C-alpha cells in the first residue's frame, strides 16, 4: 500500500469505471430502493389482512417473453458495436425499441384484462391488492419509457456513426439500463405470481 | 488556462471495462474552453460550475431559513401569549387573524411548514447542497463535478420545488397542515382540515421535485468522490468532510426513493380513489368507500426515509466540524479512522432503526425491543465521535475563530441533545414521552440546532474561499453568543415542559388546568426563541456586507492543509489554473514535531519535509 512518492499512479483509479457508468449504477440503486419500498409495502400490507385475492392476467407471460427478447436484441446490438458491425447495431437498437413499445402496449392490454377480471385501481370496488399491481406496472412502465428514450438517443448516435468498438460507453450504458429494466420486470412478475 | 488542462485529469474511464470513446474526452475539453466569455446568464444563473451552484444553494437555503424561522416566531407568539390579541399581525397574515386571534388551523399550517422548510429546504438542500457542491471537487482535487449538467439540474429542480412550496403559503385554504410527517388519513382527506386540500397537493408536488433534485445531486457527489480524486488522494487520505458528504449522499440515494414511493401512493389515495392508507373512515357523518388501507404502512415508508434523513442533516455538519476543530486546534483530528468508521456505522444503523418513531403504533413489543436495541447502539458511534472531538480539542493550541466557536457549540449541542436520545430510544420511556415537548426539545437540540451550528461554522470557515473576503469576526462572536445562549434558553426549559406532559402541536393549553403552572415557562421559551431568531440578522448582515466590503482574504487564511486552500483566492472555472496538485499525505498534519510550520498541506511531498518525517515516511520519500 505504501508505495514510494515517485511511483504515484497517474490518477486515482476509483472503481475503474467511467463517471457516467457510475452515475447510471447509482441511479439504478435508487430505482431498486423505490421498488423495494413498493414490494415490501405490498407484503406488509398483505399480512395485515383485508386483502382481496386477484387473478393475474395470463397476458403478462406474453409481455415477459417480449421484454426478455428485447434484452437479447439489445445485447446483440452491443455485441455488434464491439465488433464494428454498424448496420447490425442499428437493427438491434430498432428491434429493441419496437419490442419495448410492444411490451408497453401489452402492459396496457393486461390492465384491460385486470379490469375485466374486476380488479380495479381505485374507486369503491378497489382493494389495495389490485391497486398495488397497477402501481407496480405503471411505475415500471414509466421507467421503461425513459429506457426507450435512452435507446433512441443511442440509435441516433449510431446513425451518425458515433457508436463503434472504440465508442461503446453510451451503448454499454443503455444496455445495462435496459437489462436492468427487463430484470426488474421479471422480478415484479415473479413477485406477483408468488404473492397474489 | 483551460487549454493547459491535461486530458487525463478529467476522465479515466476504460480501465478494466469497455474502452471509452475518445470523443468523450475531447468534448469535455472543449467545454472548458467555451466557459471563458460566457453570458452572465450562463455564469450566474444556469451555471454548471459547482462553486456557483453551491452559492445558489446557500443563498436559497438562507432565504428559506429566514422564512422557517419567522414562522416559528409566529407560533411561539401564540404559545407564549395565548391570551394576547394579535391584531398587529393582520397586515402580514390577513384573514388568518380573526378577532385578534390566530386561526387554529393556520397554527397547524405554521408548525407543518416550519418543519418541512427547516428539515428539507434548509438543512438538507441548504446544508449538504451548499457544502457538498462547494467542497467535494475542491477537496478531492477535481475540476468540477462528474456531471455539471446534472448538478445544475439538481439546483433548478430544488428551485422549482421551492417556488411551489413558497406559493402554497399563500393559498386561500392555507398550506399543508398535517405536520411535516404528513400522516394519512389526516393528510389524505381534504374534508378533514382545509390544509389537506390544495396545500397538501402542492406540498406533495413540491416534494417530488425536491426528491429528484436530491437524487441528481447525490449521484453526482458519490460519483465525484469515487471517480474524480486527484493523484495520491486515496480514500484513506480524504478529509473527513468528504467522507461525511459521501456517506450522506449514499443515504440520500437509498432513502429518498422510499419517500417518493410513499408520496406517490399518498397522491393516488388523495386523487385517484385508491385505499393504500385509508380504511373504515367516517367523516362528517359519511362513510368513505375506502377499504383495506393501512395508515401504519405509510409511517413505515415515511420513517424509512425519515430516519436516515436526520443523519442526512447531521452528518455533513459532523464532517465540517471535524475539519474545523482540527484546523483551529492546530492538532490532527483524534482517531481519523475511528471517525470514518463511526460515520459508516451511523450510516448503516440509520436504516434499521426507523420504527423507534412508531413505538406507540401498537407494534409487536418484541419488534419494538429489536428497534430499541438497534437505536441504542447508535450511541456507540456517536460516543466515539464526541470523544474524538473532545480529544482533538484537548490541549490544542486553540484559535477561537467564529467557525471554531460554532464547531465547539455543535459538540455541546450534540451532547445535550444526544443524551435525551438515549431516553427516547427506550420504548418504555418513549411511550410516556411520546408526542410531548420533550421530543421537540430533543430533536431540535441534536439535529436542528446542531446542524445549524455546523452550517454556520461551515459558512464562517469557507466564506473566504467562496467570496474571496473574510467575514467580520466581532459580529461573528456576537452572533455566536446570542445564538448559543438563545438555543439553550429555548430548548432546556422545553424538556421540563415536555416531562410535565405538554403535547406537541396544541394550539393553546389555556383550557387545561394541569398545564397552567408552566404558562410562564412557555412565555420564557417564546421570548428566547424570538430573540434567537432576531440574532440571526446579525449573521445575515455580516454575510452580505462581507461579500462586498469584507476584509480581503488570502489564499489560505486559516493555515489549513486541505486542497481547496491551494487554489487561487477565488478559484475560477476548473479550480486550479495549472495542473491539479497531487496528494502525498493525510489532511491533518498540524503541529507535526520537527516541521517548520504548524501545518503541512496535503500536496507537500515527504521528500520536502525531511525534518518532520516519521520513520516509515522516510521510506516513502526515497
Topology:
The complex is a heterodimer of chains A (196) and B (622).
Chain A (H helix, E strand, L loop, with lengths): L18 H29 L11 H24 L3 H31 L11 H32 L9 H27 L1
Helix pairs in contact in A: 1-4, 1-5, 2-3, 2-5, 3-4, 4-5
Chain B lengths: L6 H4 L11 H13 L5 H6 L4 H31 L9 H4 L3 E2 L2 E2 L1 H37 L7 H21 L29 H30 L12 H32 L10 E2 L2 E2 L7 H35 L6 H15 L14 H13 L1 H15 L8 H24 L1 H7 L3 H31 L5 H27 L19 H31 L65 H7 L1
Antiparallel strand pairs in B: 1-2, 3-4
Key features of this structure:
heterodimer; A: 196 residues; Four Helix Bundle (Hemerythrin (Met), subunit A); 5 helices; B: mainly alpha; two-stranded antiparallel sheet; 19 helices; globular
Structure, briefly:
With 196 residues, chain A is mainly α.
How would you describe the overall organization of this protein?
The complex is a heterodimer of chains A (about 200) and B (about 625). By secondary structure, chain A is mainly alpha-helical. Chain A has one domain (about 15-50, about 55-195): Four Helix Bundle (Hemerythrin (Met), subunit A), CATH 1.20.120.80. Chain A is about 75% helix and about 0% strand. Chain A is built from five helices and no strands. Chain A has helices spanning about 20-45, 60-80, 85-115, 130-160, 170-195. In chain A, helix 1 runs antiparallel to helix 4, helix 2 runs antiparallel to helix 3 (about 85-115) and helix 4 (about 130-160) runs antiparallel to helix 5. The model of chain A has no long low-confidence stretch (mean pLDDT about 90). With about 625 residues, chain B is an all-alpha fold. In chain B, strand 3 (about 280-285) and strand 4 (about 285) form a beta hairpin. The radius of gyration of chain B is 25 Å and the shape is globular. In chain B, about 55% of the residues are buried. Classes of the chains: A mainly alpha (about 200), B mainly alpha (about 625). The interface between A and B is large, with 58 and 73 residues.
Amino acid at each position: 500500500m505504501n508505495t514510494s512518492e515517485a511511483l504515484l499512479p497517474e490518477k486515482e483509479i476509483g472503481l475503474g469505471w467511467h463517471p457516467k457508468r457510475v452515475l447510471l449504477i447509482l441511479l439504478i440503486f435508487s430505482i431498486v430502493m423505490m421498488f423495494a419500498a413498493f414490494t415490501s409495502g405490498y407484503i406488509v400490507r398483505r399480512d395485515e389482512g383485508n386483502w382481496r385475492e386477484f387473478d393475474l392476467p395470463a397476458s403478462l407471460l406474453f409481455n415477459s417473453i417480449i421484454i426478455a427478447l428485447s434484452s437479447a436484441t439489445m445485447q446483440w446490438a452491443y455485441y455488434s458495436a464491439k465488433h464494428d458491425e454498424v448496420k447490425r447495431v442499428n437493427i438491434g437498437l430498432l428491434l429493441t425499441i419496437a419490442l419495448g413499445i410492444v411490451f408497453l402496449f401489452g402492459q396496457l392490454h393486461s390492465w384491460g384484462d385486470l379490469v375485466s377480471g374486476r380488479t380495479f385501481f381505485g374507486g369503491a370496488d378497489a382493494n389495495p391488492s389490485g391497486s398495488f399491481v397497477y402501481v407496480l406496472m405503471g411505475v415500471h412502465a414509466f421507467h421503461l419509457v425513459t429506457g426507450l428514450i435512452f435507446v433512441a438517443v443511442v440509435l441516433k448516435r449510431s446513425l451518425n456513426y458515433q457508436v463503434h468498438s472504440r465508442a461503446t460507453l453510451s451503448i454499454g450504458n443503455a444496455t445495462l439500463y435496459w437489462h436492468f429494466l427487463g430484470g426488474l420486470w421479471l422480478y415484479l412478475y415473479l413477485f406477483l405470481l408468488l404473492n397474489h | 488556462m483551460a487549454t493547459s488542462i491535461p486530458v487525463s485529469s478529467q476522465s479515466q474511464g476504460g480501465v478494466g471495462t469497455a474502452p471509452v470513446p475518445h470523443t468523450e474526452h475531447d468534448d469535455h475539453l472543449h467545454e472548458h474552453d467555451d466557459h471563458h466569455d460566457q453570458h452572465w446568464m450562463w455564469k450566474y444563473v444556469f451555471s454548471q460550475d459547482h462553486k456557483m451552484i453551491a452559492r445558489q444553494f446557500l443563498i436559497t437555503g438562507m432565504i428559506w431559513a429566514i422564512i422557517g424561522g419567522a414562522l416559528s416566531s409566529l407560533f411561539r407568539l401564540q404559545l407564549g401569549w395565548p391570551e394576547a390579541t394579535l391584531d398587529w399581525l393582520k397586515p402580514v397574515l390577513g384573514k388568518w387573524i380573526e378577532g385578534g386571534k390566530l386561526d387554529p388551523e393556520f397554527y397547524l399550517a405554521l408548525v407543518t411548514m416550519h418543519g418541512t422548510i427547516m428539515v428539507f429546504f434548509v438543512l438538507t438542500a441548504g446544508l449538504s447542497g451548499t457544502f457538498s457542491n462547494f467542497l467535494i471537487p475542491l477537496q478531492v482535487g477535481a475540476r468540477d463535478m462528474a456531471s455539471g449538467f446534472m448538478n445544475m439540474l439538481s439546483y433548478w429542480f430544488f428551485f422549482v420545488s421551492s417556488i411551489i412550496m413558497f406559493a402554497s403559503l399563500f393559498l386561500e385554504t392555507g398550506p399543508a397542515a398535517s405536520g411535516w410527517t404528513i400522516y394519512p388519513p389526516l393528510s389524505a382527506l381534504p374534508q378533514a382540515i382545509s390544509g389537506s386540500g390544495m396545500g397538501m397537493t402542492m406540498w406533495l408536488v413540491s416534494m417530488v421535485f425536491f426528491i429528484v433534485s436530491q437524487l441528481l445531486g447525490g449521484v453526482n457527489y458519490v460519483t465525484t468522490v469515487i471517480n474524480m480524486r486527484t493523484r495520491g488522494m486515496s480514500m484513506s487520505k480524504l478529509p473527513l468532510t468528504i467522507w461525511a458528504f459521501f456517506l450522506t449522499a449514499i443515504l440520500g440515494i437509498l432513502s429518498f426513493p422510499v419517500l417518493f414511493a410513499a408520496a406517490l401512493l399518498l397522491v393516488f389515495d388523495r386523487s385517484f380513489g385508491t385505499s393504500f392508507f385509508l380504511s373504515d373512515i367516517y367523516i362528517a357523518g359519511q362513510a368513505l368507500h375506502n377499504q383495506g388501507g393501512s395508515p401504519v404502512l405509510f409511517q413505515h415508508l415515511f420513517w424509512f426515509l425519515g430516519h436516515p434523513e436526520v443523519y442526512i442533516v447531521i452528518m455533513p455538519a459532523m464532517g465540517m466540524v471535524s475539519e474545523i476543530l482540527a484546523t483551529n486546534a492546530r492538532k490532527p483530528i483524534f482517531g481519523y479512522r475511528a471517525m470514518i468508521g463511526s460515520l459508516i456505522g451511523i450510516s448503516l444503523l440509520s436504516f434499521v432503526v426507523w420504527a423507534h418513531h412508531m413505538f406507540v403504533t401498537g407494534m409487536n413489543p418484541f419488534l419494538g425491543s429489536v428497534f430499541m436495541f438497534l437505536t441504542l447502539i447508535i450511541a456507540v458511534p456517536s460516543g466515539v465521535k464526541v470523544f474524538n472531538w473532545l480529544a482533538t480539542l484537548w490541549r490544542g493550541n486553540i484559535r477561537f475563530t467564529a467557525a471554531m466557536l460554532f464547531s465547539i457549540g455543535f459538540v455541546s449541542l450534540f451532547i445535550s441533545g444526544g443524551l435525551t436520545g438515549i431516553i427516547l430510544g427506550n420504548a418504555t420511556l418513549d411511550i410516556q414521552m411520546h408526542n410531548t415537548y420533550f421530543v421537540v426539545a430533543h430533536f431540535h437540540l441534536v439535529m436542528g440546532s446542531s446542524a445549524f451550528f455546523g452550517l454556520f461554522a461551515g459558512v464562517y470557515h469557507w466564506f473566504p474561499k467562496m467570496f474571496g473576503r473574510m467575514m467580520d469576526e466581532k459580529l461573528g462572536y456576537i452572533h455566536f453568543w446570542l445564538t448559543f445562549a438563545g438555543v439553550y434558553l429555548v430548548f432546556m426549559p422545553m424538556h421540563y415542559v415536555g416531562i410535565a406532559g405538554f403535547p406537541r402541536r396544541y394550539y393553546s393549553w389555556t383550557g387545561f388546568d394541569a398545564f397552567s403552572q408552566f404558562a410562564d415557562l412557555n412565555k420564557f421559551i417564546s421570548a428566547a426563541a424570538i430573540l434567537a431568531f432576531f440574532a440571526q440578522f446579525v449573521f445575515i448582515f455580516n454575510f452580505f456586507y462581507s461579500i462586498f466590503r469584507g476584509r480581503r482574504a488570502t489564499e489560505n487564511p486559516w493555515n489549513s492543509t486541505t486542497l481547496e486552500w491551494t487554489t487561487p483566492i477565488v478559484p475560477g472555472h476548473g479550480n486550479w489554473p495549472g495542473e491539479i496538485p497531487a496528494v502525498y499525505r493525510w489532511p491533518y498534519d498540524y503541529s507535526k514535531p520537527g516541521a517548520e510550520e504548524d501545518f503541512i498541506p496535503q500536496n507537500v511531498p515527504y521528500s520536502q519535509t525531511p525534518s518532520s518525517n516519521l520513520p516509515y515516511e522516510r521510506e516513502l520519500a526515497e
